[in-house]
Amino acid sequence: MEIEVLEEYMINRVNKPLRLDGAYNIRELGGYTTVDGKTTKTGVFLRGDGTQSLSDRDLDILNDIGVSLVVDLRSPDEVTEQPSRFHLCEHIRYENVVMFDGLRMFLASEKMPKSMAELYCILLDKCKEQYKRIFGYFLDNKGVSLFHCTAGKDRTGVVAMLLLQLAGVPDDMIIADYSVSENNMSGVFEEQHRTLYASGIEVPEIVFGSRTEDMENTLKYLSDNYGCAESYLLDCGLRQQEISSLKTIFVD
């Protein structure tokens, strides 16, 4: 498995998923050391996989943690077929930000990407308006922000990458945080793979992984084409003052 190529101490430093009944990859982005010796704050951002199967107990846990904003990055079809449990929660703001669904586009055209990094770079180039909205929601929220997609590794992974790099978390930690999704979601991925295979749909193994080189290449693309997360978010339309506020919110 790809994550085995990472140093064990890096993997051990990645935040473990919350123990929930209906989700397997919801986890903190707080507690990571930045390059200037600061720390990302806990109780600010959670990244996650699908929220459609959360139990009532899960909802209570997330409510107790202080979740007050949920940003659902899934497509309209995904949201219709498997509505989030947060969709009708009166005390939690729920926002669906539809990202460019590159994987479905590739499946429809029968031209699969050579790597997941190819999809992530398309997201960076094609979804600037969506990222502006997402980070705007984060700025408006006073409690814990949970952002998620279906597996919590692709659309969610790019948002997490931007947040962590903006905070000053080193690239090796960003890569480690991304890479553990493959292990966290292994049971779900195995079931999905069997279902697709039984339906006669062939999907490359890369779709079910979170390979280190995919995040490495995405970070390189970000650096080569935009400079860094801060300059990228400025390009998306966020103001410098808003970016400074995000850092204050997220970094101790």
Structure commentary:
The structure is a single chain. The protein has 252 residues and is of the alpha/beta class. The protein has one domain (2-250): Alpha-Beta Complex (Protein-Tyrosine Phosphatase, Chain A). Helices cover 50% and strands 8% of the residues. It contains 13 helices and five strands. A five-stranded mixed beta sheet has the order 1-2-5-3-4. Helix 3 links the parallel strand 3 and strand 4 (93-96). The N and C termini lie far apart (34 Å). The relative contact order is 0.18. The model has no long low-confidence stretch (mean pLDDT 89).
Main beta sheet: 5 strands, mixed
Query: On the 0-100 scale, what is the average pLDDT?
Result: 89
User: Roughly how much helix do the residues carry, as a percent range?
Assistant: 40-55%
Can you write the helix and strand succession as a string?
A: HEEHEHEHHHEHHHHHHH
Derived structural class: alpha/beta
Enter the CATH topology name: Protein-Tyrosine Phosphatase, Chain A
**How many domains is the backbone divided into?**
1
Low-confidence stretches: none
Strand content: 5-15%
**Regarding CATH, which class?**
Alpha Beta
Q: Compute the number of helices.
A: 13
Rg over C-alpha atoms, rounded to the nearest angstrom? 17 Å
CATH H level, superfamily name? Protein tyrosine phosphatase superfamily
Q: Per the principal axes of the C-alpha atoms, what is the gross shape?
A: globular
End-to-end Cα distance: 34 Å
Supply the CATH architecture: Alpha-Beta Complex
